[in-house]
Design a protein that fits this description.
Layout: H1 2-23, H2 25-38, H3 42-55, H4 60-79, H5 91-110, H6 116-132, H7 136-149, H8 154-186, H9 204-213, H10 219-243
Helix pairs in contact: 2-3, 2-4, 3-4, 4-5, 5-6, 6-7, 6-8, 7-8
């Protein structure tokens, strides 16, 4: 009986050790993913983070890091440093799909964990992924949720202002585009070939009228206009240099 008891005790110990080793497997794989990410291999890191999630589905640290890996991969695709996986797709289209995958991971984290700091970072990164897709409305939503949790985060505040500015410009462009379409439809029935020119170009009097209707510009006026344009361009370049490109200042990913 004593022998049996010892045997059972050993079996239980071995089982517990095996379970502990199995339970830590997702962390080991995650660390390997982190090493790959820090070595500039985001695609390899993404595969390792996915393996980590297979070991433990609710391992939200892996979700967060997977979002970062997707974001980095999408940025490299967009810049042309990584070729698009589908040759029929443009770099921007392929990058947008991967940015969407990144946003999905951050969304999962933000809605699943209880730590306010982690939720805030997840919403910030969600906003960044949407910003890169030029989905400014969703980006604004993410930044606002992040700011509710940390109103003092200057990076999020800046990104929110930038996204709002871009959305306003996008809406203006769309409005102008719609107006142009309307104008084109109105002018469809008034095509130049439908209008008969009542002037006789062979008639010297009508020719004189045509020439008289065209405004003439002197050489001095033309030079003045050219110089004005050059000065305006110099002023714009100096202004851009002074202010910098706002898109360059967008704070990218926040770590777990």
């Amino acid at each position: 009986m004593q022998k049996l008891n010892i045997h059972i005790s050993i079996s239980i110990t071995v089982t517990l050790l095996s379970f502990a080793g199995y339970a830590q497997e997702e962390k080991k794989i995650l660390r390997k993913g982190n090493d790959a990410f820090n070595s500039g291999k985001p695609m390899e890191a993404a595969n390792l983070y996915k393996r980590s999630l297979k070991e433990k589905q609710d391992y939200y640290k892996a979700n967060f890091n997977l979002g970062d890996a997707y974001y980095k991969t999408a940025s490299l695709i967009k810049s042309g440093k990584i070729p698009a996986y589908d040759k029929q797709m443009t770099a921007d289209s392929a990058a947008n799909l991967v940015f969407e995958q990144a946003a999905e991971q951050f969304d999962v984290v933000a809605k699943s964990v209880s730590n306010a700091d982690t939720i805030q970072k997840a919403w910030h990164n969600y906003g960044n992924a949407k910003l890169m897709q030029k989905n400014y409305e969703d980006a604004i939503l993410g930044y606002k949720k992040a700011l509710k949790l940390n109103p003092k985060d200057e990076d999020t505040r800046y990104n929110l202002a930038y996204a709002q500015k871009q959305l306003a410009q996008q809406q203006k462009n769309q409005k102008d585009k719609d107006k142009d379409k309307k104008d084109d439809k109105k002018n469809e029935g008034n095509k130049p070939e439908d209008k008969k020119d009542k002037r006789d170009i062979n008639n010297p009097n009508d020719k004189d009228k045509q020439e008289a209707q065209q405004p003439q510009m002197s050489k001095e006026q033309a030079e003045k206009m050219l110089n004005a344009l050059k000065n305006d361009e110099k002023k714009m370049q100096a202004l851009r240099k002074k202010k910098g490109d706002p898109a360059q200042k967008v704070k990218v990913e926040k770590d777990w």
